[in-house]
Amino acid sequence: MQKRDYLIILYDYYGELLSEDNKKYFEDYYFDNLSLSEIAENNNISRNAVHKHIKTSETKLNYFEEKLLLYKKNMEMKEKINNIKDENIKKIIENILEG
Q1: pLDDT by residue (tens digit) across 37-86?
Q2: Alpha carbon of 58 to those of 20, 65, 81, 85, 97: distances in Å?
Q3: 0.70 exceeded by the pTM?
Q4: How many Å apart are CA 32 and CA 18, to the nearest integer?
Q5: Which of 11, 16, 74, 81 is 20 to 30 A distant from 55 in Cα terms?
Q6: CA dihedral (37, 41, 46, 49) positive or negative
């Protein structure tokens, strides 16, 4: 998995734990595909400040996953569910987890 995809997944799990500025710059960069210069110009800050916010967000997202392991545990659980042979039980478990 590419680093970009991994960070976006982590953002889905932990994005609400970031500051509003960090969320905004992360979303502009990763979701809206804006360059650092474009983000800086749109927000009236330096390109370096944008870079710092994005790197801080990346560091925090990785830290949260390192400590909480929500993504890892979710992937392990999905793998175990996929290994269940009984389709009825598999459906019941998937419905419980979705709901």
Answers
A1: 999 999 999 999 999 999 999 999 999 999 999 999 999 999 999 899 89
A2: 14, 11, 30, 38, 28
A3: yes
A4: 18
A5: 74
A6: negative
